[in-house]
Design brief:
2 domains, two-stranded antiparallel ribbon, 6 helices, 52% helix
Length: 161
């Protein structure tokens, strides 16, 4: 066995197995050997079902509560040939439609447009936020400056306050 992965995050818990198909056989001289051979391992149409049944019975015999799926004969499911499946799924038409679909990729914004936007944004900040505050600071500075001059020239006025 190469790996065994249990999927518990899907609707039906299940296991994926990766293994090397080994068969017990005899060599040219009649000696018992184990050899890798997929062709001999998967004999007959129901060989996979037999493998699953053998696995199920082995796990159950070890005390695990494993549920087995239903046989296809016991369900209403039908297995389709590739041609039947393509007809049912409208494969050819879907393939044609997918070829005709063209992805519209939006244009990359022009750097000059972004620059204009940035400039307009900066001008708006300057006009609506910085300039009014700057004007207020200048106005308050002038008021303070004139008061200082006034009281420097006439210190007696300060005494009246």
């Amino acid at each position: 066995m190469i790996s065994a992965v249990v999927h518990l995050d899907e609707g039906v818990p299940h296991m994926h197995l990766m293994f090397v198909p080994v068969v017990h056989t005899k060599d040219k001289d009649g000696n018992d050997i184990d050899k890798i051979c997929a062709r001999d391992f998967w004999k007959g149409q129901d060989s996979y079902r037999k493998l699953q049944d053998a696995y199920f019975n082995h796990i159950k015999s070890k005390g695990f509560n494993l549920e087995s799926g239903m046989f296809v004969e016991d369900t209403d499911r039908k297995h389709y040939t590739v041609e039947e499946y393509k007809k049912i799924t409208n494969y050819e038409n879907t393939k044609k439609v997918l070829k005709e679909i063209k992805l519209e990729i939006p244009e990359v914004p022009n750097i000059n447009e972004i620059s204009k936007f940035s400039t307009k944004r900066d001008e708006k900040i300057l006009k609506e936020i910085i300039k009014p505050k700057d004007d207020l600071i200048k106005e308050l500075y002038n008021v303070i400056y004139h008061c200082i001059k006034k009281y420097q020239n006439n210190p007696k006025l300060l005494m009246r306050l």
